[in-house]
Amino acid sequence: MIKKRIALVCGAGGFIGGHLVKKLKKEGFWVRGVDLKEHEFCKSEADEFVIGDLRNLQVCRDVLDRSFDEVYQLAADMGGAGYIFTGEHDCDVMHNSGTINLNMVDLCSRLQVGKVFYSSSACIYPEYNQRDPSNPKCSENSAYPAAPDSEYGWEKLFSERMYMAYHRNRGLNVRIARFHNIFGPEGSWNNGKEKAPAALCRKVAETPNGGCIEVWGDGKQTRSFLYIDECLEAIRRLMDSDFLGPVNIGSEEMIAINDLARMVIDISGKIIEVRNIPGPTGVRGRNSDNHLILAKLDWKPSIPLRKGIEKTYAWIERQVKQAV
Ligand code: NAD
Ligand code: GDD
């Protein structure tokens, strides 16, 4: 009889963690989830869901009380531009996420966990390579000399290095991905941590026909956005491979933020004006570079941005209606 694989998902009450639990369950894993809080938008499908604070070493010990085949470390203090680029949360972000990673990497190594996935970010890439909105550079080998534009990015880079050091010195079996703006249903949409796709969907859904939405910056800054289902597929491929990373998991369909706003407006079927206002903007341009992941994992996204935004808009429109 084949033994059931067991997985721990840290941050299972969050956006990517919540979706990952569902995927692992479909694949036949026994799953334990852990988070500071329950999932806001769905009942977790984890076999066990532990409410606990991973900054506390004893909580980490308790959730790692058996030999896990796979640990997914997604827990972090994070958010979109309105959270990480204002500077107000810098020490929380660095302390909270740093402590979680310090605890988890050491225990995973001591307890000889099968494999550990660490979720890094495109925010580790140097600001100086992302000044031209039509031609940003985010290949994996462009990370150094390091110059992330946020403390969030610096913590991610430090933790990447720490997971790699445990790999070299203690044989920890790690996989590291740098996510590029992942979006979809069941993510933050109105709590100050929402990223541009959710924020723009919310603003459009809340605005009556003939109205106006506010978009931060001049709207010419660029990004790429990856739909959640694609992200999960890439995570699982990376975990099942021998490739350690760090590797980008993102889309190469780059778009200016005002064009993203217009796409959402078009999907809504309303006539809405876009007004650009000052706000936290982050780097001028960013796009995933997928050469490495294509070569190593034969993976590339298959869902066009618009399809993912249509699904996300429909979900956020329902949240907005339920909230009134
Ligand atoms: P999220 O905020 O929805 O999920 C993170 C979860 O971690 C939250 O549910 C939060 O409660 C939990 N958490 C925070 N501190 C904790 C603690 N001390 N103990 C236990 N749980 C704690 O974020 P997400 O979008 O699902 O992101 C998951 C991971 O991917 C994060 O590490 C994030 O930095 C990384 N990432 C995400 C994106 C993206 O676009 N979503 C991009 C780059 C990197
Ligand atoms: N959040 C948000 N809300 N962003 C807006 C808004 C708005 O109402 N209006 C315009 N924007 C602009 C921001 O100013 C920024 O220039 C761009 O949209 C993208 O913002 P976000 O989606 O919030 O964040 P990001 O792409 O700069 O960074 C995100 O992605 C990283 C990985 O690529 C964050 O989620 C990071 O935490 C993540 O690591």
UniProtKB/TrEMBL annotation:
Cross-referenced InterPro entries: Epimerase_deHydtase, NAD(P)-bd_dom_sf, UXS-like
GO biological process terms on file: D-xylose metabolic process
Residue ranges of domain NAD-dependent epimerase/dehydratase in the record: 7-250
A GO term for molecular function: NAD+ binding
Keyword Transit peptide attributed: no
Signal peptide location: none
Cofactor(s), names only, from the UniProt record: NAD(+)
This protein's record includes keyword NAD: yes
Keywords for this protein: Decarboxylase, Lyase, NAD
GO cellular component terms, A-Z: cytoplasm
Family annotation (PANTHER family): UDP-GLUCURONIC ACID DECARBOXYLASE 1, UDP-GLUCURONIC ACID DECARBOXYLASE-RELATED
Protein name as annotated: NAD-dependent epimerase/dehydratase family protein
Organism: Anaerobaca lacustris
